[in-house]
Amino acid sequence: MIRKLFIGLSALGLSAQLAAPAEAADTAKIVLVAGTPSHNSGDHEFNAGCKLLAKCLKEIPGVEPVVVTGGWPKDESVFDGAKALVFFMDGGNNHPAVQPGRLDKLQKLVDKGVGLAFFHYAVEVPKGEAGDKFLDWIGGYYETGYSTNPHWKAQIETLPRHPITSGVKPFAIGDEWYFNIRFRPEAKGVTPILVAKPDDKTREGVSASPRGPYKHIVEAKGREEVLAWAVERPDGGRGFGFTGAHAHKNWGDPNFRKLGLNAILWTAGLDVPSDGVHSEVTAEELKQNLDPKK
């Protein structure tokens, strides 16, 4: 009798051991990479923003958010097994992802179906090799001299039917919303997620850097502009670009935050709840992990 009981318990123990890897395999790892301190206090709070989003993602069963601070990880093995990478950092020529060897690293991850999302300044990369990669990976990028970056209040009046917009209601938020993004030819495969119409003053670039006006931006007055977009790549992976989030306080808006969280899940190939990702963020939580700045 005792022998049978011992065998039974041993079998249960073995079953538990065998089940453990399956449970781990069901966990979706999402890596959020925060850039180094930038801009004035309250702006470009990459560290605080990534940690706030990770706090919200951690509340979703089966999601394992991992935050990397200080820019590109010193140990790239942190990317191993990730379903998606989210980059929130300074862009342009100093973009951490475009430094020597890193585009190739990302390409290898893309080839495995890893999703890529770039928030705010991180959508800006140099024209050429980096820009072409972004066209492939996420469908578009901010191109210096072509795109523009004024501060203005975007009125999001309608939202398309897409998992990223699940549960998101129309909203209006002031931010440094980039527009006139360089998309693939004919925007092939690009799904606009957030669209708004800049007023004529905004198009003059009085708050853009460098200052406007830019002839091609002004001449497009009255046109709606894409502020966030998504693509599904032929390799099965997904890409997302989001031009907002200059101002950290905007993560306190439930619709702004829900759209960002939905997009991260979707980019990772996960199901987005029909009413979107539910999250609670307090005023105190918004103040946590801010970078020391002047």
Describe what this molecule looks like in 3D:
The protein is built from eight helices and eleven strands. By secondary structure, it is of the alpha/beta class. The protein has a seven-stranded mixed β-sheet with strand order 2-1-3-4-11-10-9, with helices on one face. A two-stranded antiparallel sheet has the order 5-8. It has a two-stranded antiparallel sheet with strand order 6-7. Strand 1, helix 2 and strand 2 form a beta-alpha-beta unit. The chain is globular and about 50 Å long. The model is unreliable at 1-24 (pLDDT under 50).
Summarize this structure briefly.
This protein is an alpha/beta fold and about 290 residues long. It has helices spanning about 1-25, 45-55, 100-110, 130-135, 200-205, 215-220, 255-265, 285, and strands spanning about 30-35, 65-70, 80-90, 115-120, 140, 150-155, 170-175, 180-185, 190-195, 225-230, 240.
Kindly state the percentage of residues in helix. 25-40%
Number of H/I helices: 8
Sketch the topology as an H/E string, one letter per element.
Answer: HEHEEHEHEEEEEHHEEHH
Mean of residue pLDDT values: 92
Runs in which pLDDT lies below 50 for 5 or more consecutive residues are 1-24
Secondary-structure-based class equals alpha/beta
Q: Approximately what portion of the residues adopt beta-strand conformation?
A: 15-25%
Strand order of the largest sheet: 2-1-3-4-11-10-9
Tally of DSSP β-strands: 11
Sheet bearing the most strands, described? 7 strands, mixed
**Computed CA radius of gyration, to the nearest angstrom:** 21 Å
* Cα-to-Cα separation, first versus last residue: 74 Å
**Globular, elongated, flat, extended or rod-shaped: what is the shape?**
globular
